[in-house]
Amino acid sequence: MPVARPESSDSRVIAHVDMDCFYVQVEQRKQPNLRGQPTAVVQYNNWKGGGLIAVGYEARKFGVKRSMRGDEAKEVCPQIHLVQVPVNRGKADLTVYRNAGSEVVSVLSKKGRCERASIDEVYLDLTEAAERMLAETPLERLEAINEEALKSHILGLEMDGVDVKENVRNWLVRPDADRRDKLLACGALLVAELRLQVLEETQFTCSAGIAHNKVEYTILYFISLHLCPTENKCLSISLFLGFKQILAKLASGMNKPSQQTVVPSSSVTKLLQNFPIKKMKQLGGKLGTSIQTDLAVETVGDLLQFPESKLQELYGVNTGTWLWNIARGISGDEVEERLLPKSHGAGKTFPGCSALRSIPAVENWLKELSEELSERLQSDLVKNKRIAQSLTVHASAYKSSDNDSHKKFPSKSGPLRYGTAKILEDAILLFQAGLREYLGSHNLKTSGAHDGWGITGLSVSASKIVAIPSGTRSISNYFQTQDNNDVSAKETNERFDLAGAATSFHSESEIYTEVHFTEPDESPKKEKEGSHALRKCGLVDSGTQTQQASQASIFYETEPTLARSMSQQDGFAQETKPSSSGARACSNADYNESEHSFHSGEFEHNIPKEPKTSTSKQKGRILSNEALTPEC
DNA sequence: CATTATTGGATT
DNA sequence: TAATCCAAT
Description:
It holds the Pfam family POLH-Rev1_HhH. Its EC number is 2.7.7.7. Residues 562-632 are annotated as: Disordered. The structure is a single chain. This protein is an alpha+beta fold. The protein has 23 helices and 17 strands. The chain has three domains: 14-18 and 101-267, Alpha-Beta Plaits; 276-334, DNA polymerase, domain 1 (Orthogonal Bundle); 344-627, DNA polymerase, Y-family, little finger domain (Dna Ligase, domain 1, 2-Layer Sandwich). Strand 7 (113-118) and strand 8 form a beta hairpin. It is globular. The protein binds a DNA duplex through residues 1-3, 43-44, 47-48, 51-53, 66-69, 85, 91-92, 94, 117-121, 281-282, 284-287, 341-355, 390, 392, 396, 398, 408, 410-414, 454, 456-457, 459, 461, 537, 550.
């Protein structure tokens, strides 16, 4: 539930920066010939042309929409360039976009507190910078104003036809403005600079809103979403909100991306008055719906009539006050300093007939997912000196036999051990625990026998990430929860020596850092599993169960970067891959969405991936070719 | 079971 | 801490 933080007469300067059709921009930077062309990014091309996850502005003019299928997009815009999301290990790989997002963050985080809100969005708290600017340079005497700042849209500012920029300039430097407006004006200047800097350093354009808190931004987001593409929508929304002039103005500027908009507090009340309640952040779901029905409220303005006490008794004290404040554009939501994600996850869905129906099929996919996750954890460790402590496996499933077919598949989690093989091993155990519970009394019998169940989604994620304080040589201290008995700190130390052996080298355009972990003399082999924490959780059945503390005991295996992975992983694969042809043959679900089968010429292929030589993958290719049905 | 893949946050 | 749900993009 939303929690209200007491806060009023808020003079912060909060900006929200949102990349324009980010994935498309990333692809266009990679292939500059796509610039100016109608372009969309699509993933998985073998079913109805794949799903669009980003649509460029040129393509939007043709009515191409996000989450159309590639085929539909082609229908309305035959010239469209469809770029595939990179596929690795049989699944979409968003790494390039994550990295591009990081580039942007590193520019935007220079002027104030910065919160990475998603892969392509950040919040900035520019209060201090704005105050400084105001103190140093009284706006009235500001000579050179960034051209970009002059293009700002000021909500509520009447545009009397003449020179728009002059109008904006006047607003920005208006001597009789109150302090809060002046701060916003400074914010607008700062953001203009930042956006230019982003463009210079990354070649990406972005749009931004500047307001006194996070909530006000919601409005901008709504407006930009709905006004952006077409004139028609623009008109209807304008009428709907009753702000024809302002919004029309805004809309005309929205033709091109790369805009910024200021929300002076004087404009907030009017804007919120007719703002649809369901579009407010946090109210898009059930709470929003119940407010609509309980109170017959359609817009934020409608909420104003209800006293705080009434809202509190209906929705609880916290949510009640939160609502009361929101209706008045008041929000104490802080911008959290956070440049890095709090968790990593790799997942894939297996819709329709692609559902996984055998344990080996599931294990194969868990392997792919675990590899990706491990790679990302490794990179996070090296780049950011952070360690994840918890591993979670989620699945969704159906059960056709039992009438109870819509039972939820339980998620399972436990301590995370580093190393691809360890992660896979634990992921499999967690999955099996989930499956047993899911199937209840059903005995899963032998590995391949599917008893009317199917897995329609799988994901493996890592969370509880903690930083290793810089200057620390050993990390063991940062893992253990108080009770640790059988794995001594000393032993863990021996296994992981971060600062000790870090070297870096260049490779193409990227910089990799290689960290050598010291291997324990006697490698912890299978026997070591007896002490694994999962056993303690009862997730594996073993007679020889060693008593084990619940601490996150982490065994680092050496993780070199490129070439090595083959031998090691293949070795492991053989170990874990329970069955071969038999079980595989019965499952067309095995690798049914591999990247090899696209319709030639229909897509702009993403940099031909180097043949990822993995035995499992090759087997998968062969299999999927014969197992693929036209629809599937 | 065809809006996928990820995130983050809150509740219990 | 684990599991579950919800919301957002």
